């Protein structure tokens, strides 16, 4: 059994071929897709976060709105770039959104991906400390965030407050109990996956990772997951972790699917450089009729290792078509692979 969610990049474009031609279209359709996904039995609605781009950026208004419109589906991110975040303000936003959703947030955070602008986090007022890289700064922000959402008091109360205080040091409010165990780290290497395990974060592994061995992507990703689980065990955490992988998977069951995805997909891994001197391996996409798709997916070692599968959706094709894409996987593929 697996949890199956969708991951939306939240693109919009003024192109007449796009169903999302504005930020408003993308935000409102994201809410509608989460509602539709819950109705057909999808387990999670996850959203990418990018700055300075025609994509979803500030996630918490969207997550809160989805939380208010749904009752069961998990609501998450994949991922929030911690280089841009004030971890204390983020803790307040996350606590509020999680309370609105009734404790269903699953927040993916990370050091972020290549940006649309040069050092965009500087425009948000953040600078690495002396001797730090921007990745170090992201991890520092993440550790502060993890500490404050524990709910322990840390701030000295004013002796003459505007309103009466409870005794002792004060914590950030609103506090959402249990949110700390629902934070995920988006890891691009084995080492960062092991670091996440030591800090008690769940693991999100995407459709690319740093090429550390030259092996096929799904094998490298499976090895990363096993290294993460070993580090988790060594850390002695009291609860079991969760692991997600992301994939582009399309079951061709009608003429719409054939028109969009029936002309061949990226059926092999590719190699590229997401940053200078950072060679990455990008996983293949899957698009085939259900019987063929089932055979292909059964060979993916990383999917087998993970408990959660996030299906990337082409959000610019609209809510109805993306709901169809998700339902096709649930109906025609998942049962045969034991995911349902």
Automatic annotation (TrEMBL):
Top-rank taxon: Bacteria
SUPFAM superfamilies from the UniProt entry: Bacterial luciferase-like (SSF51679)
Pfam families found in the cross-reference section: Bac_luciferase
Luciferase-like domain location: 9-258
PANTHER family documented for this protein: BLL6902 PROTEIN, LUCIFERASE-LIKE MONOOXYGENASE
Stated name of the protein: LLM class flavin-dependent oxidoreductase
Organism (species): Aquamicrobium zhengzhouense
High-level lineage: Bacteria, Pseudomonadati, Pseudomonadota, Alphaproteobacteria, Hyphomicrobiales
């Amino acid at each position: 059994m697996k949890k199956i969610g969708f991951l939306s990049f939240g693109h919009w474009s003024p192109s007449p071929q796009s169903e999302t031609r504005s930020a408003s279209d993308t935000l409102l359709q994201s809410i509608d897709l989460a509602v539709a996904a819950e109705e057909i039995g999808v387990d999670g609605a996850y959203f990418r976060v990018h700055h300075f781009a025609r994509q979803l950026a500030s996630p918490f208004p969207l997550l809160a709105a989805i939380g208010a419109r749904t009752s069961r589906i998990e609501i998450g991110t994949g991922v929030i770039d911690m280089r841009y975040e004030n971890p204390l303000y983020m803790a307040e936003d996350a606590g509020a959104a999680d309370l609105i959703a009734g404790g269903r947030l699953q927040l993916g955070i990370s050091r972020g991906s290549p940006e649309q602008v040069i050092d965009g986090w500087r425009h948000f007022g953040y600078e690495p400390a002396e001797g730090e890289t921007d990745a170090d700064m992201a991890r520092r922000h993440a550790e502060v965030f993890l500490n404050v959402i524990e709910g322990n008091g840390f701030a000295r109360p004013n002796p003459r407050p505007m309103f009466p205080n409870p005794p002792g040091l004060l914590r950030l409010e609103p506090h959402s109990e249990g949110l700390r165990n629902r934070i995920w780290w988006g890891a691009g290497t084995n080492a960062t996956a092991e670091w996440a395990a030591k800090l008690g974060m769940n693991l999100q592994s995407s459709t690319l990772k740093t090429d550390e061995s030259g092996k096929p992507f799904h094998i490298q990703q499976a090895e990363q997951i096993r290294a993460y689980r070993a580090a988790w065990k060594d850390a002695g955490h009291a609860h079991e972790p969760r692991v997600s992988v992301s994939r582009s998977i399309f079951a061709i069951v009608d003429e719409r699917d054939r028109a969009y995805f029936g002309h061949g997909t990226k059926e092999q891994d590719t190699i590229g450089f997401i940053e200078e001197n950072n060679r990455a391996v990008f996983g293949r996409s899957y698009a085939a009729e259900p019987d063929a798709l089932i055979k292909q997916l059964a060979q993916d070692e990383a999917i087998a290792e993970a408990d959660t599968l996030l299906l990337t959706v082409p959000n610019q094709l609209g809510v109805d078509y993306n709901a169809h894409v998700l339902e096709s996987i649930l109906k025609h593929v998942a049962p045969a692979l034991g995911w349902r």
